[in-house]
UniProtKB/TrEMBL annotation:
This is ATP synthase subunit I. It is a multi-pass membrane protein. Pfam families: ATP-synt_I. Coiled coil: none annotated. It is found in: Cell membrane. The keyword GTP-binding does not apply. InterPro entries: ATP_synth_I (IPR005598).
Length: 132
């Protein structure tokens, strides 16, 4: 479980870094305000998704360890509400690119994928010669 918590903390940390990069670029490059604002808002929602996923995983593990019959909560409703809030912000600001915002919702999944690829590569490099 410690490995999963470490991986989750890294995912949230790197997703937050990406969000901060988009937010800084939004402030610094006014000509691309539409692009970077959409990416920043979408990545911010993605940070929430990563934290929500972690809480859901923690609840599922706790329930499994206690051998309970109840199911974990229903986080889909809160995720839909956050997406609706992001859409309202885009409508209110009127300049963020909505398509890039939707694409940036998947930032944390891309961070997870990159983490798996890098960990796999490290494991293959650390194996001794002749071991598959």
């Amino acid at each position: 479980m410690d490995e999963a918590n470490r991986f989750l903390r890294q995912t949230v940390k790197y997703t937050t870094y990406i969000t901060l990069v988009w937010a800084v670029l939004w402030a610094v490059v006014p000509g691309w305000k539409s692009v970077f604002s959409g990416l920043a808002i979408g990545s911010l929602v993605s940070v929430y998704f990563a934290v929500s996923m972690g809480r859901q995983l923690q609840a599922a593990v706790t329930i499994a360890l206690r051998d309970e019959k109840r199911k974990p909560g229903f986080p889909l409703v809160s995720r839909i509400a956050v997406i609706a809030l992001a859409v309202m912000v885009v409508k209110k600001l009127s300049y963020p690119n909505a398509l890039l915002m939707i694409a940036a919702f998947f930032t944390y999944q891309l961070v997870i994928f990159a983490g798996f690829v890098l960990n796999r590569k490290k494991q293959q490099e650390s194996k001794p010669e002749g071991v598959k």
